[in-house]
Amino acid sequence: MVREREEWGLLMAATERPEGRGLGDRLYDGIFHNRVWRSIFRSGYPNTPRNQMLAVATNVFLHLHPTRIHRTHVKITHTFCLGGLSFFLFLGLTITGVLLMFYYVPSVDRAYQDILALDTDVRFGQLMRNIHRWMAHGMVLTVLMHMMRVFYTGAYKPPREFNWVVGVVLLVLTLLLSFTGYLLPWDQLAIWAITVGTNMVGSAPILGEPNRFILVGGFQVGQAALIRFYTLHVIGLPLLAAVFMTVHFWRIRRDGGLARPL
Q: What one-character-per-residue DSSP string does 7-49 give?
């Protein structure tokens, strides 16, 4: 505490004695060495190694990542940025999904008409829907490729075996997000695809039929199935995916950063 007060006193003294200092130095101190900046950012401007580490460690988002990384980790061929691309696609899906929710009602009487209106009446509606669809396909592909890269480079080995399990859960959630979104257009392709998929779930022994009944909300695909798939697609599964992504990123740091190439 005493040291922090001394540092604060030196910073305030530097700003109070502008003589002999250039305009750029005084402007720098006025912007980054004032009470407003210090109330938001607990460290100074990240122009020194110490301030850079403090800026990462005290930020609610950046602290998930290590303050320093090995030089091999900045090579594109080390990870091909497949995990980052998957996260970027998830963010894009969230944004476009929220925009689509403004024009879509999960009702068997309106769902298909709303999709037609998106393609024909809403400005940039078809573009927005196609971006959402292709991002969904891309996320499934990048998550699969990311797990293949982790497996082939041995990045699942101790102490990273728990994070591998978290990654498997994220893969399952990604596939479920794609599956639940398939029913929402409420056309013949979607209805029969979900019918076949839920019948596959029901064919499992012992718990198959009860799980199918819970998933569909009845004995056949209808309004109950649409509202359940819609709720899972826009609320339940994205929240679970966001939680597991946070744990996934945090574990990468706790396990010593990215795995070194073999």
A: HHHHHHHHHH--TTS-HHHHHHHHHHSSHHHHHH-SS--S-SH
**Quick check: is 100 in a domain?**
yes
HSE (CB half, 13 Å, CA atoms) of 255? 19
Are 73 and 260 spatial neighbours (Cβ–Cβ below 8 Å)?
no
Q: Please indicate, yes or no, whether residues 6 and 110 belong to a single structural domain of this protein.
A: no
| Structural domains in the chain (count) | 2
Instruction: With CA atoms as reference, report the closest residue to 125 among 113, 134, 116.
Output: 116
Domain limits for position 106: 73-254
Are 15 and 30 in contact by the 8 Å Cβ rule? The answer is yes
Q: Tens-digit pLDDT profile for the chain (262 aa)?
A: 545 554 555 555 444 444 556 787 788 778 777 788 777 777 777 788 888 888 777 777 777 666 677 777 677 888 899 999 999 999 999 999 999 999 999 999 999 999 999 999 999 999 999 999 999 999 999 999 999 999 998 999 988 999 999 999 999 999 999 999 999 999 999 999 999 999 999 999 999 999 999 999 998 899 999 999 999 999 999 999 999 999 999 898 888 777 776 5
